[in-house]
Amino acid sequence: MRVSLNWLRELVNVPLDGESLVKRFNLMSAEVESHEPMSIATGLTVGRVLTCVDHPDSDHLHVTAVDIGGDVLQIVCGAKNVAAGQKVVVALDGAVLPGDFRIGRSKIRGVESNGMICSLDELGIDHKYHQEDGIHVLPETAVVGSDPLRTLCFDDEIIELDLTPNRGDLLSMMGVAHDVAAMLDGRTAFVAPRIREDDEPNPVSIAVESSDCRSYYARSIKGVRIGESPLWMKARLIAAGIRPISNVVDITNYVMLETGQPLHAFDFDKVATGAIVVRSAGTDAVLTTLDGKDRALLPDDLVITDGVRPIALAGVMGGLDTEVGPETRNILLEAAVFDGIRIRRTSKRLDLRSEASIRFERGLDPARTRLACDRAAELFSALASGRVLSGVAEVESQSLEPLTVQLPLAKIASVTGRAYEAAELADVWSRLGFAFDYEDGVFAVRVPTRRPDVRTYQDLIEEAVRISGYQQIPTTLHKAAFNGHLTDVQKTRRRVRNTLSALGLDEVVTYSLVTPAAATAFDAMPRPAVRLLHPMSEDRGTLRHSLVPSLLEALEYNLKRKAENIRLFELGKGYALAGETELVSAVLTGHCEESRWQGVAEPFDFFAAKGLLEALFTALSVKDVGYRKPASMPMALHPGVSAELFSGDIRLGIVGKIHPTVAAARDLPDTFVFELDFAALCAAATPDLAMREIARFPAAPWPTRPSSTSTKAKESRSARSRLRSR
Fold first, then answer.
1. Residue 575: which residues within 8 A CB-CB, separation 6 or more?
2. Which of 237, 416, 420, 619 registers the highest number of CB atoms within 10 A of its CB?
3. Are 246 and 226 in contact (CB under 8 A)?
4. Counting Cβ atoms within 10 Å, is residue 692 exposed (0-12), middle (13-18) or buried (19+)?
């Protein structure tokens, strides 16, 4: 969430500067990912272009005379759209633009230039937010000689919050204002929408045929005029990371940022009927979305229809057929609450994550749905000359009552280790805007609907601790009845790592998620793989059965970077439908032993790998290990250079050489691998119990004679003492 500091100051009293507020956020709220001014350009002023003539020695440059208020500068400009009479942004001599680009007096093809006329790109505004080619022309209301950043409302700071999934309330300026008020013990300054409704009634009716549509509100606005948004709205959208488009679209985005409630505007003249029906998509449904793509819908998708056809994919994206365009005059405004899980499922499948879908996924405040609808209608009337028709069509199935959560004082003391006073907690609830009752040592806190993350007494304790200050929690040492120690399994893991490292192997940690082919590449018998329902990518969508394919990938990576004599091992888990298996695996290639001064090098072979395993078995006290011809073996292993390992009837694992065809396909030299079942190693271990007779006579320290050095030191100290006594 990108927060405009100027906008925030309108909603709540913030007596701190940006840096101090960032520190408060990091200590008491969400972590701040970045804090930066909207534009770092300096040395700017508003100028008026008095004259503009062609450069005498160029076919694309212009020589302009620019009034900057009390002085007229000659500036050479290469923009195609510069013209006399314009008010522009002028970078003066000594100005510094983003990228440490310094402006000074210069001669351009023999003509003196005393500054630069700037585009928005040169002010540090990303091109995706304005789509302008050439210089930026200011409105006629701009005052010559004034600060253009203030004129454009770019004199702002942006605080970007890194939100956790449970803090969906901070995805709105109102939510951030509530949290800042709690942190600073301030008060919010929200203004209720004031709408002047027309006498004509709202013709829209709503039918909801799915329980996953919790709320639906619709207003009708007639006679809107499509145009540009005011500068202050454009600046706030840009600060939030949203591109301004037109006044109608910008209003819906602006209100979403303000209240956290996504909105959608339909061109009412393109809607077949006034009957809005919310239902599942059904079979064989196709919707062309606003991005121009035909989307094949599934029965599980939730759609908005006009009683005839789908006109929007609920909570994700609107339909192209009812898009608001330059010719739009009548608006159907939607404000709704849909099931977040269902919206997430659809948006992930279609790869259509948007600002709106993210808010539906995190959870909305049902008490703000009607508020957002009215706020947008107010702005349509003020900024788009729209007539708001009388009445709101609505379907509301959610409870708007606050949730009551009990918190005994004794409980917070036992959890935090600090005895909170009742008055202290009462102050915290008041700062958070939570109503409460207190009786017999128990708080009954009424949590408003804007905080869906606060549901249990644990959540209340978290709120109390963060608002009162984490520094209030006393620092104590853990009191244990006994000293901690490693379990036998932990000791064995440590012994495996230490032994293999001592034998010259390097430990690696690889991904458990691999490709479907790699997941089963080392299986001796066909087994189904476990696939993720929503993988981040196809390459990381399946849980592996064996560690060997991942180790071979690591081997390939190192060989391509000219590494030699590679010996890697991993202690990790393989996954199957039956459960998890802890494995010890290794890959070995190159020389197992070499003497550079003698020019002798011994390459790895089966017996070298067998020697490493026997050293490991000795360290783990695994005895009587036998090597047998595998009854069934992975296709990736050489059938004549492989063996299964057994200790009695316990199968420990397998060792062998990578099959030549597999090695050739991966461009590998002779490579040997082994994979052991860690649980089988622990079961087969039979440590020797070494005992000896207790000594009959207690040990005594051997008397030592003082060294000559210590004797001389004592004599020296004694002599100095005698001199002082004299």
1. 512, 530, 543, 544, 545, 581
2. 237
3. yes
4. exposed
Count of helices and strands (H, E) across the chain: 19, 40
- Computed from CA positions of residues 556, 557, 562, 563, in that sequence, does the dihedral angle turn out positive or negative? negative
pLDDT in tens, 592-646: 776 556 666 788 889 999 999 999 999 999 999 999 998 888 888 998 999 999 9
Q: Which residues of 693-709 are buried (b: 16+ CB within 10 A; e: fewer)?
A: eeeeeeeeeeeeeeeee
Q: Is the dihedral of CA 240, 245, 246, 251 positive or negative?
A: negative
Angle between helices 247-259 and 231-239 (to 10 degrees): 50
Structure tokens at 490: 């932990």
**Residue 2 in 3-state DSSP?**
strand
Taking only the tens place, the pLDDT of each residue in 407-416 is 999 999 999 9
Entry field: residues in the chain: 726
Query: CA dist 463 to 164, 406, 421, 584, Å?
Result: 15, 14, 15, 45
Name the one residue in this structure whose structure tokens are 């066909």: 526
Instruction: Give me the phi and psi of 215, to 5 degrees please.
Output: -145, 150
Bridge partners (DSSP) listed for residue 45: 90
d(CA 636, CA 514): 17
Q: Are 367 and 402 in contact (CB under 8 A)?
A: no
Contact 292, 220 (CB under 8 A): no
For residue 354, the SS3 value is coil
SS3 78: coil
- CB 261 within 8 Å of CB 252: no
| Phi, psi for residue 285 in degrees, rounded to 5 | -85, 140
